[in-house]
Design a protein that fits this description.
single chain; 50 residues; mainly alpha
């Protein structure tokens, strides 16, 4: 089992990692919004049918 320690991380790498994290969060938020919207519409349709 090997443990790799990365030293000397530059600010550019940190900024890129932060941007990547924000991008992933935006993507996840978008998916949650779409799923929530579909769920709400589905529940609305089911309610109208009954």
């Amino acid at each position: 089992m090997a443990i790799a320690v990365e030293t000397g991380v530059s600010r550019h790498d940190t900024r890129r990692a932060t941007g990547n994290l924000i991008s992933q969060l935006r993507h996840a938020a978008g998916i949650c919004t779409v799923v929530g919207s579909f769920t709400f519409l589905f529940a609305l349709v089911i309610g109208l049918i009954q």
